[in-house]
């Protein structure tokens, strides 16, 4: 995508987002741009964020949710009931346990893929092959070649693919990008810190048991290694294991790195280095790092990541966020707020997230909803739907998702190998290190076959 095209798409998104916000008090968020067309939608992955994203889509567009899919029968039945209650038509969507049958049987316009990370690539590629537009959760996948294949498939079949990195659609962060950064209030920027200090890494050490009868653990595992089942695997705590994810870097760093790339118009990092490991909590079954630093080197600018799943954050108001240092001032940004502090004379600026609870009262009672994120997801869905209409690139286009995801996977590979990695984005290879290049693709468990970018 050219810089000019990307800028045009971003300007269009900002204009649409502003219009939607202005109308939200009386007509519903984005009513003028999405309510004229009914689209047939399916959801693959009916867990926490799957339902949350689908309900935000229902809020901004008169979609018909025709089908749901999950390998957990109990979770699937609950989702059918919840969707029927929230759906304008009150229709009960059809239920599937295998996404392949859903894609083969249903006539759809778009699909939301909300599975665990190790199950993003295959359903997404199958969906675009069938001519569907896709909203896929972040990160793109668990290895770099998966992302290359997903990007190749989206382009080959001409589909719109929005990645669930909704910081790009967060209203107060759009304001920070436009009014603080783009207006020049920071001046020259050469250093950014991104971080997460949530105590989010699983600490339990539960025993191995048989999977619940309502849960198809074999299908849930799919192409990943088949670990002995414990209750940490499902639901929601599967990110404790590198077999299914890329740890806290793949979960939380990818959001903040992507946000900074968007705010500062950054492309690929030139080099990536990382250090850390399991330094404190050695008792848990979790095999992801509890402490990790990474440096994403963009030449004249370095973005430095740190996570600790223990101890206190340096700034309790910003336990997960970014600090952008400029010669004229500093910007702190998170999902909840931003703070601009000028150097010397000038006016400090503070903004908090706008919850929109009066416009969307159902947000007050929805189970497990991240209320502070709901406005961003609504904006992300509106942008996705508008780009489906004009066949443009969404604000979190799959290419942007691929860059951010790959960068985070490179950080994990750098930590694993103890090397500084130089990345060649044109070749999709680490420069001068074939041993690391062998790690760009994880082995798939039979009978599943790893996607090949040249054969999608």
Order of helices and strands: HHEHEHEHEHEHEHEHHEEEEEEEHHEEH
- Calculate the terminal CA-CA distance, rounded to whole Å: 20 Å
Rg over CA atoms, rounded to whole Å, is 21 Å
What proportion of the residues form beta strands (DSSP E)?
Answer: 15-25%
Largest sheet: 10 strands, mixed
Low-confidence stretches: 1-34
What is the β-strand count?
A: 16
Number of helices: 13
- What is the CATH architecture descriptor of the largest domain? 2-Layer Sandwich
Mean pLDDT over all positions: 92
| Helix/strand class | alpha/beta
Keywords:
456 residues; Rossmann fold; Dihydrodipicolinate Reductase, domain 2; 2 domains; six-stranded parallel β-sheet; 16 strands; globular
